Amino acid sequence: MSHDAIGDFLAIIRNGIMASKRFIEADFSHLRYGIAQVLLNEGFVKDVLIDESDSVKKRIKIVLKYVDGESVIHEITRLSKPSRRVYKNSKNIRPVIGGLGISILTTNKGIITHQQAKNLSVGGEIICTVW
Q1: What is the C-alpha separation between 52 and 13, in angstroms, rounded?
Q2: What is the residue extent of each domain of the chain?
Q3: Which 3 state secondary structure label does DSSP give 98?
Q4: Which of 26, 92, 93, 128 has CA 20 to 30 A from 107's CA?
Q5: How do residues 52-109 score in pLDDT, each as one tens digit?
Q6: 5-130: what CATH class?
Q7: If we measure between CA atoms, which residue out of 74, 68, 5 comes closest to residue 33?
Q8: Please, which residues bridge with residue 124 across strands?
Q9: Other CB atoms closer than 10 Å to residue 4's CB: what's the count?
Q10: Would you put residue 46 in left (φ > 0), alpha (ψ -120 to 50) or beta?
């Protein structure tokens, strides 16, 4: 049985938002950190920090962003799963909610948004959509 670490990471973010938490914490991985950096660059979260206080494990701390008590992230959905990978080239990536949201892709250029993938003319695996 496989373990979907990215699905768990997105569930931690969703649960933190539903509980109106100020921040969430998750175990560190480069893929999780890349997703968190994209969320930070696109303005969906306030801050992303790496906690190295534990000598054994690094952790990612994501400070969630709220406007007038409502979360900036309305929905975060996993598209590509371990059982069904979703790959698109740059021409076939659709906008999320008419351009209000983003798709996060993993490409040979790193973890980027669908707009950056179109600008760079690269395709990849669509990890999730956020709006």
Answers
A1: 20
A2: 5-130
A3: helix
A4: 26
A5: 988 889 999 999 999 999 999 999 999 999 999 999 999 999 889 988 999 999 999 9
A6: alpha beta
A7: 5
A8: 88
A9: 13
A10: alpha
On the CB side of 120, CA atoms within 13 Å amount to: 15
**E strands, 1-131, where?**
23-27, 45-51, 59-64, 66-67, 70-71, 76-78, 87-88, 102-107, 110-113, 124-130
The span from the CA of 121 to the CA of 10, in Å, is 27
User: Which of the two residues, 107 and 3, has the higher pLDDT score?
Assistant: 107
Query: Cα–Cα–Cα angle for 77, 19, 56, nearest 5°?
Result: 80
Contacts of 92 (CB under 8 A, 6+ apart): 123
- CA neighbor of 103 nearest in space, from 24, 35, 48: 35
Distance of CA 78 to the CA centre of its chain: 9
Amino acid identity, residue 86? Answer: V
Q: Which residues contact 85 (CB under 8 A, 6 or more apart)?
A: 125
